Amino acid sequence: MILWVAELSAKAVGNEHVYIATDDERIKIAVESAGFKVVMTGPALTGTDRLAEAAELITADIIVNVQGDEPLVDPDDIKKIANAKHQYPNMIINGFSYLNENEKPQNVNIPKVITTEENNLVYMSRLPIPGFKDLKNAPASYKKQVCIYAFNKSELKLFRDFGRKSTLEHSEDIEILRFLEFGTPIKMIETKPGSYAVDAPEDVAIVEAELRKVLSS
After folding, report:
1. Mind listing the pLDDT tens digit for each residue in 28-49?
2. CATH of the domain at 25
3. What pLDDT shows up at residue 72?
4. Which domain holds residue 106?
5. CA gyration radius for the chain?
6. Mean pLDDT of 166-190
7. Phi and psi at residue 142, to the nearest 5°
8. How many CA atoms lie within 13 A of 172 on its CB side?
9. Could you give the CA distance from residue 85 to residue 80 in angstroms, rounded to a whole number?
10. Is residue 184 part of a domain?
11. Can you tell me the distance from the alpha carbon of 48 to that of 50, in angstroms, rounded to the nearest whole number?
12. DSSP type of residue 17
């Protein structure tokens, strides 16, 4: 799965700009055998903490994080997130799409997203948000996080230097909430629908079915 994501990332930015950050020798051997570069890190509190450590070892103005559990990520969306960081250099950039008919807002493995009408992040939760008091006010659709992000090095350093999970981050187990605790603005960029992350064993069959559709189209 990591190699699949790496190959998709290479389609977006070129093989020479793709780095896999890991502390696992097995992953290092696998990705180097496939021709990709590896940045070895120490144990990390979160994936973003690992990214922050890795960012110190490479030369780049913008760091785009594509999580290794997103094998259906679209290379064009990676470019879109990177371009948005150029457009909004003082904001964290994160992707979102809308839940489809097979995805339930009650699924705690899917972070739901609330934004302003300008798509600035208000909050992200594993609960079905936004809530509603009256059924007639229920949202017509729900936004979900897509795990493509863009940062600069100073933003990542601020994140890692905090040294622990923030209160909200700890409760929700959603890393980007640490930036909200800092007051760092976050711009959510809509990506193409159909992205599925492998967050639990039962997600594997869903993702494999979607991959078969992609490969047969």
Report:
1. 999 999 999 999 999 999 999 9
2. 3.90.550.10
3. 80
4. 2-195
5. 17
6. 97
7. -120, 140
8. 21
9. 9
10. yes
11. 5
12. G
How is residue 166 written in tokens?
Answer: 């923030």
Q: For 148-155, what is the mean pLDDT? A: 97
Token duo for residue 209: 């079915």
Residue 214 forms part of a structural domain: no
Q: Please give the Cα distance from 192 to 98 (Å, whole number).
A: 9
Of 24-28, 36-40, 163-167, 197-201, least confident by mean pLDDT is 197-201
Give CA–CA dist 207/53, Å, rounded: 30
Measured between alpha carbons, how far is 27 from 12 in angstroms, rounded to an integer? 22
User: Is 209 contained in some domain?
Assistant: no
CA distance 191 to 80: 8
Q: What one-character-per-residue DSSP string does 116-183 give?
A: -TT-BEEEEESS--S--SSGGG--S--EEEEEEEEE-HHHHHHHHHT-S--HHHHHHT-TTHHHHHHT
User: Tokens 């189209």 map to which residue?
Assistant: 217
Dihedral sign (CA 79, 26, 161, 17): negative
Give the pair of three-digit tokens for residue 92.
Answer: 């964290």
Question: What total number of domains does the chain contain?
Answer: 1
Average model confidence (pLDDT) across the chain = 92
How far apart, in whole angstroms, are the C-alpha atoms of residue 70 and residue 184? 25
What is the C-alpha to C-alpha distance for residues 143 and 214, in angstroms, rounded to an integer? Answer: 23
The first and second tokens of residue 135, run together, are: 């059924």
pLDDT of residue 95: 97
Q: Where are the beta strands (DSSP E) in the chain?
A: 19-22, 37-40, 63-66, 92-98, 112-115, 121-125, 143-151, 186-190
Task: Please tell me the distance from the alpha carbon of residue 137 to that of residue 78, in angstroms, as a whole number.
Answer: 34
Residue 215 lies in a domain: no
CA–CA gap between residue 21 and residue 56 (Å, rounded): 12
